[in-house]
Amino acid sequence: MSLEQKITSLSEKYFPEVVRLRRTIHEHPELAFEEIKTGVLVAETLEKIGLDVKRGVARTGIVASLKGKKSGKAVALRSDMDALPIQEATGLPFASKNPGKMHACGHDAHTAIGLGAAMILSELRDELNGEVRFLFQPSEERNPGGAPYMIEDGALEGVSKVFGLHVLSQADAGAVGFCAGEMMASADELYITIKGKSGHGARPHHAIDPVIVSAQVILALQTLVSRNLDPFAQGVITIGSIHGGFAPNIIPNEVKLVGTLRAMSKEWREFAHKRVHEIVNGICYSARAEADIHIDLGYPVLVNDEKETMFAESCALQLFGPERVFQAERLMGAEDFAYYLEKVPGTFYRLGIRNEAAGITADIHNDHFTIDESALKAGAAMQAYLAIRALSEL
Ligand code: NI
C-alpha cells in the first residue's frame, strides 16, 4: 500500500471518532484562555494514543509530541481551540450548551483535525523520520493571541517546519487552498484622542473645537491608503468609532477616535504607524489642538514560505488530486499563526467546508455557521500526510 493509501484509509478509520470529538468540543465552547475542558479532552485523547503530553502551555494550551522510530528533526502541526462570544442559532443537536459562546470560526474542527492527525500518525510511527509536535493553542480570536505565549513557552523549540489550516466557507468540503507569500494582514488598533478647549457653541473663537479637528483627521487618515501606499499593494484604515460632545451648543474638550489599520507588508505597516502620528499631530498642530495617539499592536502580517507552500500544494495534489486543490485568496483578516511563521518556515492553508446542497454556506463568525463534517477527514489526512512527508525531506 502506498503512503497516500495508508493515510486515506486511516483517516476513514478514525473519521467517526474525529466527528464525535468535534461535536463534543462544539457543544462545550470555551472562550480565549478559558479552554480548560477542551484542553483536558485534548490531553486525555492524546495520552490514550501514547503521545507525550505537556499541559498548561501558554496557560490553557497543550503541546504533545509523537516520536517516530527513526530519529530526526521536528515538524509542528497547529490547532487553535477557542470559541467566540456569539449565541449559536444553528439548531443542531450538538449546538452550544454554553449561552453566548459558540464555535463559529471552526476551531472545534481545527482541534478535532489535530487529534485525528495524531491518531493517524500514531499508527505510522515506523515511517516517521523524527518528531511530530502537536500544538493546541489557546486564544486565536483575542489579541494578543495564544501563539506568542506558546512560542515563549518553548513550543517551537527544535521545530524546523510548521503547518496549520483554517476552514473556509467559500470552498467545497474537502478541498484545500494554498497561497504563497503574504496571505493575511497585520491588524493594529488605533486609539486617538483629539484634545481641544471647550466653550460655548456660539463663541467658537474662544474655544478649540476638537469635533472640527477630528473631522479633518478622519478624512486625512484616508490618504494613508490612497496617497501613501503603492496602488498595487494592499492596506486598509477604518475609523470604526467616534465619540465626543454631549449638547448642541457646547464645544467639547475632546473627541475619541478608534479604528483598525491593516497592512500586507511589514514595511508599510511600520511606515503607516509613522504616518498616523505625522498626519494626526500635523492637523492638530495647525488647529492648536493636541493629540494622544496609541497604537495597539495586533497580529503581524502572515507570510507563507514560498518553498513550503509549493511543497504543501504538491502534497495535496498527490493525496487528493487536482480537482480538490485551489489557489487561496489573500484576506485582510488577521491570524496569529503569523507568529509561528516569523520563527519557522511553513504554510497556513485553507480547508473547504461548504456543502451547498446541504445548505451549509454560512460564513465564519455567523450564528448559523457550521461545517460539512467530511472536511474533518480531509483535514486530518492532509495534516498527517504533510507531517510525514515534511519529516522525510528534512
Ligand atoms: Ni478562526
Which secondary-structure class do the elements indicate?
alpha/beta
Give the overall silhouette.
elongated
Q: How is the main sheet built?
A: 8 strands, mixed
> Which cofactor or ligand species appear?
nickel (II) ion
Reading off the top of the CATH hierarchy, the class of the largest domain is best stated as Alpha Beta
Helix-strand pattern: HHEEEHEHEEEEEHHEEEHEEHEHEH
Taken as a percent bin, the fraction of beta residues is 25-35%
Could you say how many structural domains there are in total? 2
Helix content: 25-40%
CATH H level, superfamily name of the largest domain = Zn peptidases
Number of strands: 16
Could you name the ranges where pLDDT drops below 50 across 5 or more consecutive residues? none
Arithmetic mean of pLDDT: 97
CATH topology of the largest domain: Aminopeptidase
